[in-house]
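Hi R.,

Here are the chain sequences for the assembly we discussed:
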Amino acid sequence: MRKTILTTMLLMLTLPMAAGITGTVFDENKEPVIGANIVIEGTTTGTITDFDGNFNVDATAGQKLIVSYMGYISQTVVAKNGLVINLVPDSKMIDEVVVVGYGATKKSNISGSVEVVKADELPKAASASVGEMLRGRSAGMNITSTSASPGASQNISIRGGLSGQKPLIVIDGIPQLQASSLGSGTGYSGGDKDNSLINISPDDIESINILKDASAASIYGSDASGGVILITTKRGKEGKAEVSYSGSVAFQTIKDAPEFLDAQGFMTEQNRVLDELGRADEQRYSQEQIDRFVGRGTNWMDKVTRTGMVNEHNLSVNGGSEKTKYLFSIGVYDHKGIAKNNDMNRITGRINLDQQFGKYVKAGVNTSFTRLQYNNVPLGNSRNEDAALIYSAMTFNPTVPVYNADGSFADNPIRPNMYPNPVSLLEITDESRSYDIFLTGYLEVKPIKDLTLRATGGVDMKFDESDQYVPTTTLKGANLGGQASKQSRRTNLGIITATATYAHNWNNQHDLSVMAGWEWKKNMWIGHGEVASKFPTDDALMHNMGTSEAENPNIWSSKGSSQMASFIGRAQYTALNRYIVTFNIRVDGSSNFSKKHQWGAFPGLSLAWRLSEEPFMRDVAWLSDLKLRGGYGQTGNAGSLTGINTIYGVNRGTYVIDGSLVNGIGLKKLGNPDLKWETLSDANLALDFGFFKGRLSGTLEFYQRDRFDVILTKSLMSYQEINTVDYNSKEVYRSRGVELSLHTVNVDTKYFGWNSDICFSYYRNKTIKRDDDFIPSTTDPYEKDWGDIYGYQTDGLIQAGEHYAHLPNSAPGSIKYMDVNGYVYEDDGKTIKRNEDGSYMLSGKPDGKLDNADKVKLYNATPIPFSFNNTFRIWDFDLNIYIYGSLNGHKQNDVLYQSSYSIADLTYGVNALTAVRDRWTYQNPGGSLPGVAEANSGIDPTSSNYFYENAWYLRLDNISLGYNFPAKLFKGYVKSARIYVAMRNIAVITPYKGMDPETGNGIGAYPNQMSGALGLSFKF
Amino acid sequence: MKKYLYIIIGVALSISSCNLYREDYTEISPEDFPKTENDLKLMVNQLMYEFCTGYWDGQSIYSAGYDGYQVMSDMSTDVLWSGWGWQSDVLYYQQWKDNSTSSISDYFYRGFAHYQFLSKARQVIRRIEASEAKEEAKRQYAAEAHALRGWMGLYLYDFFGPVPVATDAQLDDPMTFNRIGRLSEEQYDSVMVSDLTYAIDNLPESAPRGRMTKGAAMMILLKYYMIRGGEEPTGQWFVKAEQLCRDIIALGVYSLQNNYANIFSIDNQGNSEIILSVPCNASASWTANYMTAEILPSNMPWTDKSAGWGGYVLPWAFYDKYFKSNADKDKRLSCVVTEYTTAGGQYIGKTNSNQLKYGALPLKYGKDPNMTGAQAGNELVIYRYADVLLTLAECIARNSGVTSEAEGYLNEVRRRAGLGNIMGYNQSAFMEAILAERGCEFFLEGLRRQDLIRFGKYHTEANNRINADNKTEYYKVGKEHNRFPIPQSFIDESKSAIKQNEGY
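And here is the predicted structure of the full complex:
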């Protein structure tokens, strides 16, 4: 807004100017104010300040000058030469326009829960997606990365993610397609990719608004149960063409690689394990062999990783005349991941145009293009034929060299043809590409004052391709004679929206805005793919699949579409700038439901009271803003349901006839025509506050959300041909939470400033109501907290001589699972007695058996998202220190569990963590990890607390130091210039000993990395 | 109010001529399917999926894992074991009562869950009958579906005894929770006999390998009669079985292979001895033969690309008792490996292998030169002609005493194995000889469990193993083990309409 005023003022530069009164305008930091407005009182004559804050106005001494600047209190001064005017910020005046879906409103008039994030305040270095940058930036929006690989998908959950839906992302008014990653159709997967926010260049974003509660989000109806993220892109501004460039280069190193045994350690431990298993006669290495081994063996992790590098460059040009405004931008983002051969490359382009036709009509287009290109490496939890690169590098036999003498890849001699050589996996070609074309146009007509008619149409087209070739130099490729895969998919969203908005303000007393509209949307998907093997040569990769001699190449193709029509409406009324009421409604019709349940209505109502505008509060000096808000609304979820039709489905290769695979077709799904929407209702109560002239401001929100008519799958009698059906259950899920965001201006002097932002949220998701026939159990009580983890308690390890009746298969060194409870039996001694609610009756006493009765609530793992952002200003330097994390978390140490529980795999040549040295043996009865006997206990340690660790964490995510070159330096040729250095992901404070507490999911997780970046940006 | 709203919306919709329409080309609508003869075939093919050699999803009853029919049947007897420890011990020593920590209850669950197949097959038969295809095609595919229903019916009865079978009316009303109990033995007999009789009457004598034949349906009925005979020795089951054996022989389609190992050889698939097999195709994970990989030690030279998992064994106790004395003669031992040398030249035997410690390697399916990884292509032999001959010998002995005809059938099988004739045994010695012969002839083929049950030795042999191996921590088992326990969840679901098997 401030900039818009600025450009309007720039216009005035063209006014004729005579030599007159000169002066300089400064802000509260003694910085010159550029573009402040100087008007001679009672006239239209005036000017604006230049880049040094100087002005020269055609006035005579003694005339009164009004000096104004957006966000500052206007001053009236008597004209004289050499005026020095110090502007004071007006915290009450700062009133941004906030996009709220199908329109915008003044921030002060907002009564729902809408969060505003300024994109230019986010650290950009080495972040491909705005999703990464938004982590922790909004209380109540929890973003976690599922993996640390380039472009990996993220979980974005707004207010606890009760709906199970991803947030709807709306870019310039057009909802973005939500598509999942296109798989390769083979055993190798490069991991799930971010498919939504990564398509937009962070540099193109002006602002991000988040509709958190249903009173605000209900305007998006059945798509909005996951919340709504509204992204507004930058647009052209009136004035001379402005060219902006920003770029950075970053280097990345591995941060959380776990430590595995080296060759000698491996040989020693393998011998020991065989000894502990009572199989010493199978030992492979003599002590002499071990001692004579030269070096540490092959460090496979080193062989498959490298120093990562991120390179990004963004260039944009914007400008325009009074009638035509334009912005175009291009960006390149290139990421060489820390795993070899793992690259991501993105090219983005955007053109935003606005054109005024005459007095009443305005039109414009927004177009963007994104091409994403990945070179993937196999990821996941497999080390066998379909081995994942990282897991395989962690566990491959360290005594084996990379290559045999003949240049072929060396194999594990203990189990040949079983575990692929990790380096051989780098020979796999795995490319995926994704093109996103986003075209929208709008036409806006203002036939009469206060009435705006607007029509928007757009398409979001995504084209995904996935190509893979597994050459015969790998184990899998050798087995299959090479395997090639080509998959492609096109998804298309078309949308037409028409709205009419009437807004009028009566005497600055009554402010009314009414909007009504209609929308139609169609989703379409079409795709095909083929996987084949047995190729004459590896040379053609996946580009000559006709040469395949495979008997049963896997082929598929599909097409489908769905439609939605909607009526939307909103009324907002503000009285006396302090009583605000907003009503939203959306009526959605979805083709995913049968005719009788096709339509659903989603209303939202919110009220707000700006106490600080009350006459009795207006003079309270320390209070700059106080607003009490409350709202209630509903959103829906139609999901991607297909549950209304009874259908047959094909099963490819269902059986072998005469040696060849044949297909089968059978009933696949039983339709339920009674299915209807899930509904999420949401009550919100909030307080916005600002004290001490904005030195301390923030928002405190409380909410309760209920999800009902939850679409679940229920079991029919197990003998039925199809024994499940989708239905609207009576289950009710509830989320209650509190969110606090605080902004403080700690120090604010001319040469030093320090601002802080704190975001904190706390919530719990619960199931509070069940179906009538629900039968509770120890691990599934009637009312259940979603974050609760149930399992056996443990009490260390079983020592020599100890025997426990409830652990018949355990031996010394096994985990001592605790028998704490038992069932009560009928007189026959077999049938368990039931309580009135149908649940099994518990005796409360140990019964010599380890069963579900012994499982207890171990932890609650619901995260408590927290972030702490600090911005410092020291002369022309700026410094940012950003920390985010979760104050609660419990997580299983998967790598340790795998190494420890599968310790006997060492005898197959599978490497283990160095930590396994501290396992229980008769010689080491104090060992912290279970001994070889645990694997025979018959109890899965993951069903106990043994490998769980406390996993709260705080990540020091960003430290960046920038220097803003004074504009004077460039004599006006360069408007601004900034250079910065940044360190990303510098440290993680956590008690968790596994891999990264956020991204270290699974056994062979992609290691997280620390980045060091150097960046530059300037405008001219 | 809502009504008016919807009316307004409806009007608005018709004005905007906006019809909400959803399409998905991958969904096959009941309006379009099944219609043609090929549709019938596709439906029957789909039924066959549950008989695959399978992946580890519990869907396939011929999986080579612990939950597969053949493995459960053999490993709970003296003829199969594994070096992998306690899960196989639970089977080997029949410790499935009160063993909440083992996976055995999962195997029972997966097994019993297949009773759904009887409904699936019934519905397919009804759809075939209702279709507009030619009568001849309808009869052919209905017969095949009946045979498959009988096959699964046998599997279920073999493991659990009679299971619940839904009526057509109950199948037509899936949303209603009809809690149905198990059929009585007599009712189940009539279901089995009517399914298989229809199949026998309408199936061809020969068909592409993998499709059901008249002989296969007869063989399934024969196995059912033999189980029933063991349960009700005074019934006429063995008489019916004897007749059925003669009928199978009379088909003239089947004969013994000269070379025992050849029955299972990849080069001799579909040979005349095989009556019913599950064909394999190593190119798909769910149709490959994993039996070899389960046995093959990882360091034993086999094919270039093969990988062995090194688990299953033929226990030394069985080997020593039945094979050792004839070790130089019995040609069936060509399928049993007792020691080997690794590629690196290391000798591996009883003393330095965690697998051979437990038993010999019943590598019955021989080498598939194209075996890659754990996947081989040898068809899984389910029932074969030698079984008919030995069963006939047994039935004659049971029905009319030891006759020279009975001795002849037994000796036909022994001669092929390179063993001498048995003559002049009394009834009990002859029966013992039959049982011993069946053990040596059919190891790894999943017949041992029912054989021992029929001879009343299934549980006593388990107790013998517990005693012999001094497994004092294990409970002694009883006759109730002849049937597996019905998983509690199915009893609960039926609100106790399903009654548990005796002794559990």
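Chain B has a mean pLDDT of 92. Residues 135-160 of chain B form the longest helix (26 residues).

Let me know if anything looks off.

Best,
T.
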